[in-house]
Write a structure and sequence with these properties.
The complex is a heterodimer of chains A (about 230) and B (about 350).
Chain A: H1 2-13, E1 17-18, E2 23-24, H2 25-28, E3 31-37, E4 40-45, H3 54-69, E5 76-81, H4 87-95, H5 100-103, H6 113-138, H7 141-144, H8 149-155, H9 159-174, H10 199-228
Parallel strand pairs in A: 4-5
Antiparallel strand pairs in A: 1-2, 3-4
Helix pairs in contact in A: 6-9, 6-10
Chain B: E1 2-3, E2 9-10, E3 13-17, H1 30-46, H2 55-59, H3 63-73, E4 78-81, H4 97-106, E5 111-113, H5 122-136, E6 140-144, H6 160-172, E7 176-180, H7 196-204, E8 209-213, H8 220-229, E9 233-236, H9 243-246, H10 248-261, E10 267-268, H11 278-286, H12 292-298, H13 304-318, H14 323-330, H15 334-342
Parallel strand pairs in B: 3-4, 4-5, 6-7, 7-8, 8-9, 9-10
Antiparallel strand pairs in B: 1-2
Classes of the chains: A mainly alpha (about 230), B alpha/beta (about 350).
Chain lengths: ~230, ~350
């Protein structure tokens, strides 16, 4: 039974994202250990450096805590971060159910939600870049900005492309951007279609955001591997 | 000096070097150990295997090692110290302005010693900045906005005191403001790597040059946006150019975008020695070409004349260096003998 429960915990942690890298903590190697003891679960997270931003770390700790507690059979969840400059503060804060601003009252003003939103917007742009790369294999530039949600859903039916499409649509919905079948498939963060003449610059901007994401991801992976082997 | 197969001479200014002391003896606390170890992880992560240093050597290296690495084997003609004090982590400053200045005087024309300041030092720090500017002839400063200071975990260039210091720089003739963007900036709930404060400072001080070191990684996208709007914002390639070995494609993409957004006149080479050795960085950069698809996507090419600008001419412009004159001056100096010995 422990094995199944372990897998269940792993599975819910797959939904916990690094907000900056827009990748699950499980894929990134940030899950150091999972211990299941009856209805008690301990999860230890780890990060690529001692200096990684405590705010992102806290978002992941909170999300992991919620994810684990979402399982009916879990009576007690203990989530912690190891080897970090703020490990003790963050771990104690999480145990006491504190908000980030209470943990760092001197240095933080307000909560982390605006930070989360900021990076959800970047994730949206990165995912849209992934989508456009695939779309440009099928359609040419003037056409691509005119397609509807419905048309793209049908055209991107195979498993690989539909995954990219669904990830994009999911973040679009998270951000509250309309996604009806007759809406434009490609839409800006402000919910506006992209004009033909603006596409080139817009596409450059999206690629830059995606490149940034990939570059950070790669750097983090490299540093994590150096730090913990693997 | 790097010579191409066709006999072209490339004058190289390494825009970012250090002569640090991160040794255990100099560490004040655990953070000092973690700081140099994090540097070491970067070193191990991105260096070619044959260029890896043992941990001990990496924490503290001597003058001869540095001179040989830069000017002997590393093709570097001139180099700029970008010190960071980190005195909350280290007993003696991690990067030491006075120690660097000793070398600047010992090897005339080879080294430029930048200073630093910390706006949280208030009035006293303004006096110190003036003293250093006059004593060490500062042309530039390296700012590490994430540096700890008592209870504070960092500051922003848009803070009122930072603005006063920048005004002081202008008054003292310190034109080049190298800004490091790193982890842990107050307030913690915002994005720790946010580069927006550079935008504010660059607008407020159009006569100053703001060289964003490590091209604002990990906020390259935000950095490029700022640089498009502010003509006095430059890209310092330190760290980014180390990716040329392990991730040449990322490097190509970054160069394509920097050339697209900033253009060829606002990009500066820096080895970040001793994080990485300039020899392999320069060799790989000189033989590097953007893959065809990236050329097509970005509409950019990395030509020989652009490489010359990035490796030396752009920094020369910021620091008022006449390259032809410098070549003649340096040809017979004591370091030129080191270069000859290195073959």
């Amino acid at each position: 039974m422990a094995e199944t429960r372990y897998q269940e915990i792993w599975h819910v942690l797959e939904q916990v994202m690094d907000p900056e890298l827009d990748q699950p903590v499980t894929e990134l190697g940030f899950v150091d250990s999972i211990t299941v003891n009856g209805s008690q679960v301990k999860v230890v997270l780890r990060l690529p450096t001692y200096w990684c931003s405590p705010n992102f770390a806290f978002l992941m700790l909170e999300d992991a805590n919620q994810a684990v507690l979402s399982m009916n059979w879990v009576a007690k969840a203990e989530i912690s971060l190891k080897d970090h400059q703020s490990s003790d503060l963050l771990n104690a804060g999480l145990t006491d159910g504190k908000k980030f601003r209470d943990i760092f009252s001197e240095e933080a003003d307000g909560d982390l939600e605006s930070l989360r939103l900021h990076f959800q917007k970047k994730a949206f742009m990165g995912r849209q870049a992934d989508l456009i790369t695939i779309m440009l294999r099928i359609w040419a530039v003037p056409e691509v900005v005119k397609l509807s949600v419905h048309e793209v859903t049908i055209a991107l039916g195979d498993p690989e492309t539909s995954l990219v499409w669904e990830r994009y649509q999911a973040m679009r919905k998270t951000l509250g951007i309309s996604a009806n079948p007759d809406d434009y498939a490609l839409i800006t963060l402000e919910g506006k279609p992209i004009a033909d003449r603006d596409f080139s610059r817009y596409w450059h901007q999206l690629r830059l955001t995606r490149m940034n994401r990939e570059f950070n991801g790669d750097l983090c992976q490299g540093l994590l591997q150096i730090r913990y082997g693997g | 000096m790097f010579k191409t197969a066709d006999g072209d001479e490339i004058f190289i200014i390494d825009g970012h070097i250090a002569f640090w002391d991160g040794s255990a003896a100099n560490q004040r606390n655990r953070h000092g150990a973690e700081f140099i170890d994090c540097f070491y992880d970067y070193h191990r992560n991105l260096s070619p295997e044959e260029w890896l240093w043992p941990h001990d050597k990496f924490t503290k290296y001597d003058e001869d090692t540095m001179l040989h690495d830069l000017f002997g084997r590393g093709y570097v003609d001139m180099a700029i110290f970008q010190p960071v004090g980190l005195t909350d982590f280290y007993k003696e400053p991690f990067g030491n302005i006075e120690k660097n200045f000793g070398l600047v005087e010992k090897y005339p024309g080879r080294l430029i010693g930048n200073g630093y300041f910390d706006p949280r030092d208030g009035e006293r720090g303004l006096d110190l900045l003036e003293y250093r500017a006059k004593t060490f002839g500062l042309q530039g400063v390296k700012l590490y906005t994430a540096e700890w200071h008592g209870d504070s975990k960092g500051y922003k260039l848009s803070d009122p005191w930072a603005q006063r210091y920048l005004a002081k720089c202008l008054q003292l003739g310190i034109r080049n403001i190298h800004v490091h963007k790193g982890p842990t900036i107050k307030p913690l709930n915002r994005d720790a790597f946010d580069v927006a404060d550079v935008d504010d400072a660059a607008s407020a001080f159009p006569e100053l040059n703001f060289i964003v070191e490590h091209i604002g990684l990990p906020r390259l996208d935000d950095f490029c946006w700022i640089a498009v709007q502010e003509p006095n914002v430059y890209a310092g390639l330190a760290v980014a150019n180390a990716f040329i070995h392990t991730r040449p494609r990322y490097f190509a993409e970054i160069m394509g975008e920097l050339l697209y957004w900033l253009g060829e006149d606002r990009i500066l080479f820096g080895s970040d020695y001793a994080l990485w050795h300039p020899k392999w960085l320069v060799e790989k950069f000189m033989s590097f070409e953007l893959p065809e698809d990236i050329q097509k996507e970005s509409g950019q090419r990395l030509t020989l004349s652009i490489k010359k600008k990035i490796l030396g001419e752009n920094a020369a412009r910021l620091y008022g260096i006449d390259i032809e004159k410098a070549k003649r001056q340096l040809a017979g100096d004591s370091i030129a003998h080191v270069i000859e010995q290195a073959g």
